[in-house]
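Budget justification aside, the reviewers requested a transparent look at the raw inputs and outputs of the sequence design task funded under Objective 1. We therefore reproduce one unedited record. The lines immediately below are the structure tokens for a 316-residue chain.
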């Protein structure tokens, strides 16, 4: 989901200045049961797989390059997909109508799995970066983000049926590097920062923001019960089972926060069962969270005796 990596973030997550390893491990986590399962080790190592989407029981993974891969949840096999055309960095993906929409570098692209082909749907209203992306009632929403030199408070939506963009109510304040999810007819935005002062220091939002499309208006919800890395690469989100989940990787644990819209409150579980990662992808499926890629120091490889192959040893 996220795309920023630096020495400072590495020290935050690992407590040491040595580079972590690109993590080709696909794992699932059941937040209700606190059960983790390693699903697969991908033969591909994608740098900064910032986004994932699932359609037709196929999990699609995109990185900050033209590379794209897919994982078949039925067969457990990885394979490449068509090279992404006219593509830049910092992508976000979502699934709608059995197809994949990719927003990044000022373009909206459509991937058709049946044809294994991409279509350029044109430019976006703004050359967004570090934005939240979600789908609500057949419409794609781009929430907040940034442009060179400034964070954004804007929200735009794209109607695939009409093929056009429109602008909706602005966020209460500017937010970059936020997450956004659709749940029960509303959009929830969490995290994100804006710069303040002469030194342009990052100040992260500590409340959940709720958008009601019927009113075209935002309201503030309960405060978020955690703090974000100032680098913004150590958290992700998903909506499953009627709840909004925000996963925050910390130096020595992972906090899994669940927001219940009916109760209007957060519940938090700390776990060491998940690989701590930065710049990782996240997607929901069948009540579970899927994580892939990014950088991690929670595993290592070792030689298999009598073979030239290696195996992964997990250390979460």
């Amino acid at each position: 989901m996220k795309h920023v990596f630096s020495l400072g973030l590495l020290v935050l997550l690992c407590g040491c200045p040595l580079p972590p390893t690109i993590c080709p491990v696909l794992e699932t986590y059941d937040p209700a049961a606190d059960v983790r399962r390693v699903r697969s080790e991908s033969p591909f190592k994608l740098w900064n797989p910032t986004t994932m989407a699932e359609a037709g029981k196929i999990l699609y993974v995109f990185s900050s390059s033209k590379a794209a891969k897919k994982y078949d949840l039925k067969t457990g096999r990885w394979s490449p997909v068509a090279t992404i055309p006219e593509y830049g960095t910092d992508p976000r993906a979502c699934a709608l109508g059995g197809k994949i929409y990719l927003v990044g570098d000022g373009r909206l692209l459509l991937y058709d799995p049946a044809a294994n082909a991409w279509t350029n749907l044109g430019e976006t209203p703004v050359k967004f970066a570090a934005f939240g992306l979600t789908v609500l009632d057949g419409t794609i929403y781009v929430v907040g983000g940034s442009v060179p030199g400034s964070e954004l408070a804007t929200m735009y939506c794209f109607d695939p049926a009409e093929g056009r963009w429109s602008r909706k109510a602005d966020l209460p304040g500017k937010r970059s590097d936020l997450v956004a999810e659709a749940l029960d007819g509303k959009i929830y935005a969490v995290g994100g920062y804006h710069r303040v002062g002469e030194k342009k220091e990052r100040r992260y939002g500590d409340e959940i923001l709720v958008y009601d499309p019927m009113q075209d208006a935002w309201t503030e919800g309960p405060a978020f019960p955690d703090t974000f890395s100032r680098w913004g690469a150590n958290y992700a989100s998903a909506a499953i089972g009627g709840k909004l989940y925000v996963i925050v990787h910390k130096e020595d644990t992972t906090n899994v926060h669940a927001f219940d819209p009916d109760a209007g409150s957060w519940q938090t579980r700390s776990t060491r069962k998940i690989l701590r990662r930065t710049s990782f992808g996240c997607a929901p499926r069948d009540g579970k969270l899927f994580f892939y890629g990014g950088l991690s120091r929670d595993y290592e490889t070792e030689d298999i005796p009598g073979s030239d192959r290696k195996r992964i040893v997990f250390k979460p």
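The chain has one domain: 7-314. The chain has one helix and 31 strands. Computational costs for records of this kind are itemized in the attached budget.
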